[in-house]
Write a structure and sequence with these properties.
This protein is an alpha/beta fold. The chain has a domain of 142 residues: Rossmann fold, CATH 3.40.50. Helix 1 crosses helix 6. The two termini are 16 Å apart. 41% of the residues are buried. Bound molecules: glycinamide ribonucleotide.
Length: 205
């Protein structure tokens, strides 16, 4: 199988979604693209270790090193160019990308968000905060969404969603874990394969 779509995964933390992508590549569920680079904005992100263990090249680009957001994003774009990246997966990447950046990869950036968009999303909703908000509101069903990334935080076209039941004794932590296990770790690799396969087909013609 030709594997000519190079995928970069952008991370900030633990990288369990990255682990799901690595697992999907190993099992063959992700076969239309290759995990070619992991970029972290945090030098101590455990995701970097996961990438190194899997033999994936890594780069650290820290916001604080740069004078402004544009210079930070230019540094990320330069690393992506260096590795001939075709598509980007945001897997727990806790920075909002500007329109200048997202336009460069129109319909080629995916993000996983731990709720059923349009609930509990947008600026300020990330990580555990999303699950705290869902529990506080009292919804009985939540889930995860994979969507294309544009200039509106969590506002791009939805690719896949999966619902997850909320249980009476849930804490933000137990809910986060269930949403990851039952939804995120499944739909992120699936959506990545869908988009990679489409890009691979476009490259062929
Ligand atoms: C995941 O739950 C992901 O959906 C969320 O952060 C966590 C990262 O975990 N992302 C957002 O909230 C983005 N708005 P991971 O590093 O173990 O994959």
């Amino acid at each position: 199988m030709k594997r000519d779509i190079n995928i970069a995964v952008l991370v900030s933390g633990g990288g369990t979604n990255l682990a799901a992508l690595i697992g999907a590549e190993k099992s063959g569920d992700l076969h239309s693209g290759k995990l070619a680079l992991v970029v972290s904005n945090k030098a101590d992100a455990y995701a970097l270790q996961r990438a190194a263990d899997a033999g994936i090249p890594t780069a650290v680009v820290q916001r604080k090193i740069f004078a402004d957001k544009a210079a930070f994003e230019d540094a990320i774009l330069a690393v992506l160019d260096e590795h001939h990246i075709d598509m980007i997966v945001l897997a727990g990447f806790m920075c909002i990308l500007s329109e200048r950046f997202t336009r460069r990869y129109d319909k080629r950036i995916l993000n996983v968000h731990p709720s059923l968009i349009p609930s509990f999303c947008g600026e300020g909703f990330y990580g555990l905060k999303v699950h705290e908000a869902a529990l506080e509101y009292g919804v009985k069903v939540t889930g995860a969404t994979v969507h294309f990334v544009n200039e509106v935080p969590d506002g791009g076209e939805i690719i896949l969603q999966k619902a997850v039941e909320i249980l009476p004794d849930d804490t933000p932590e137990t809910l986060q874990r269930r949403v990851m296990e039952q939804a995120e770790w499944k739909i992120l690799p699936q959506a990545t394969e869908l988009v990679a396969a489409k890009l691979a087909k476009e490259k062929d013609v």
